[in-house]
């Protein structure tokens, strides 16, 4: 028996990535077969459940509407997304952002003072990552005495129906090199992001299991917090992930449905 | 007396950066006062002279036309630019590029087979660095068994009249991170690029002096080849360059005219 199945006995809470686990991103999204029922089965078994996403193309409200449309019954309180998390950080630290984000995320920042920026926040801006917009963000940073760059995630790419697309991490690295600085990540794989979701469930890291399709940001990030983590072979999964030089998942499963079947079979047995 | 002035006695050849040393880039360019005469004085003194530029927004021919327009008498044979250099490399290695470059550089590649690409070449593409174009380059790379990324220089930014602009190195770092690869640089600070210019002059590294405004790519690159190198306080120079953690110029001069005056005073004295 795989070691992670042995540890399932003490699992009290589950963290799920969304894109690539619940549905395939892009356009309206396509549900991954068995995932809707898998989410229901987790809840019925009495396990705590939160969704940890790096989605930053839309507000949390719009994102939930999309999830509901494809068949999921999920509420705002269950979702941890970098948009709301960064707004809290900006308020706490008195930071006024210059934003380079997707138009769909802008309403999240309506209550945030954006005058005379003293930091730059970038998200998965997609087509908004024009040369002009990236250059503007660069000019803001290079003029700051102590440049503060906050990136909503640090993913390399994600999969949409028409192929792989560059993610925000690529542009974080670009600005880091341009200004010779280190950016801060809000979202996965940042420890604070996972820990906030765990705290909300009232579950310790060793009692939690993360399931995602990103070997570095989902699996590696969760493991660094002391959680066990599974990689699903859906979404952006590629076979070479199973030979990743730095991160080894506690288990690999074909999809969320298979993971949940295995978990429920071994829970409290 | 500064140590570099002592070594000037044995100097036989000079390499000059162009943008920020001969003229300020952007639009038609503005000559830096005294630089036209300084170039003439170098030639009259019997010193060998070549121009080493990372300019990749135009073909070498167009670039020379621009230099002539602002008052310089420079021919194609005197200029080392990454466009012609990369074309030679592509031919030698049987590489067929997917190009992400400035429209102005495209004619340089007219004789190059670009069908079924087996490498990606990026230059200072400026507004052509859209999300869509960078994503296309990424998709080509990620599908190659052994991705080959060639970057025409690795500068962070350069100065135009309206402010600082992101340079090609920033996008090289972006694609390197996206694909988990190392790009190859053609142009400064690559050793092969400096050595080709030296060989063309028939001058050994210890007999040559590089003068540029970029502490890393001009000064650091030349020093790694065994040349002495000066930084001018024009172009993209910033005072903090004189405290750079890794590179220390052999000398700092206010501009090219001052450098040439000092060189000619100490030559063979």
Helices, strands, pairings?
The structure is a homodimer of 269-residue chains.
Chain A: H1 3-7, E1 13-16, E2 23-24, E3 30-31, H2 35-44, E4 48-52, H3 60-69, E5 79-80, H4 82-93, E6 97-100, E7 119-122, H5 131-142, E8 149-151, E9 157-160, E10 163-166, H6 168-179, E11 184-185, H7 191-201, E12 208-212, H8 215-224, E13 228-232, E14 251-253, H9 256-266
Parallel strand pairs in A: 1-4, 1-12, 4-5, 6-7, 7-8, 8-11, 12-13, 13-14
Antiparallel strand pairs in A: 2-3, 9-10
Helix pairs in contact in A: 2-9, 5-6
List keywords for this structure.
2 domains, 4-stranded parallel beta sheet, Rossmann fold, 18% strand, homodimer, 9 helices, 14 strands, globular, 269 residues, alpha/beta, 6-stranded parallel beta sheet
Word description of this protein:
The structure is a homodimer of 269-residue chains. Chain A is of the alpha/beta class and 269 residues long. Helix content of chain A is 35%, strand content 18%. The first copy, chain A, has 9 helices and 14 strands. The longest helix of chain A has 12 residues, at 82-93. The radius of gyration of chain A is 18 Å and the shape is globular. The mean pLDDT of chain A is 94. The interface between A and B is medium-sized, with 30 and 30 residues.
- What does the main sheet of chain A amount to? 6 strands, parallel
Order of helices and strands of chain A: HEEEHEHEHEEHEEEHEHEHEEH
What's the overall average pLDDT of chain A, rounded? 94
Number of strands of chain A: 14
**What is the count of DSSP helices of chain A, taking H or I runs of 4+ residues?**
9
Tell me roughly what share of residues is in helical segments of chain A: 25-40%
Count of individual domains of chain A: 2
What is the CATH third-level topology name of the largest domain in chain A? Rossmann fold
Give me the CATH architecture of the largest domain in chain A, please: 3-Layer(aba) Sandwich
What overall form of chain A do the CA principal axes indicate? globular
């Amino acid at each position: 028996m795989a070691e992670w199945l042995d540890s399932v006995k003490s699992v009290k809470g589950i963290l799920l990535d969304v894109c690539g686990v619940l549905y395939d991103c892009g356009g309206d999204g396509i549900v991954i077969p068995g995932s809707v029922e898998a989410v229901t089965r987790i809840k019925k078994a009495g396990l705590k459940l939160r969704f940890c996403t790096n989605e930053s193309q839309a507000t949390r409200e719009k994102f939930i509407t999309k999830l509901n449309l494809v068949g999921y019954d999920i509420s705002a309180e269950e979702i941890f997304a970098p948009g709301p998390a960064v707004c809290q950080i900006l308020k706490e630290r008195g930071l006024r952002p210059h934003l380079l984000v997707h138009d769909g995320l802008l309403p999240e920042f309506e209550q945030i003072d954006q005058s005379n920026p003293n930091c730059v926040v970038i998200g998965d801006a997609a087509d908004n990552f024009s040369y002009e917009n990236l250059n503007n963000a660069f000019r803001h940073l290079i003029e700051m005495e102590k440049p503060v760059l906050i990136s909503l995630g640090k993913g390399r790419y994600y999969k949409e129906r028409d192929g792989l697309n560059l993610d925000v991490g690529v542009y974080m690295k670009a600005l880091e090199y341009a200004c010779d600085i280190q950016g801060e990540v809000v979202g996965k794989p940042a420890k604070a992001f996972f820990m906030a979701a765990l705290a909300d469930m009232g579950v310790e890291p060793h009692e939690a299991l993360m399931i995602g399709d990103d070997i570095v940001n989902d699996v590696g990030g969760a493991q660094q917090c002391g959680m066990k983590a599974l990689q699903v072979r859906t979404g952006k999964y590629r076979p070479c992930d199973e030979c990743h030089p730095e991160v080894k998942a506690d288990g690999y499963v074909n999809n969320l449905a298979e993971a949940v079947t295995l978990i429920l079979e071994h829970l409290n047995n």
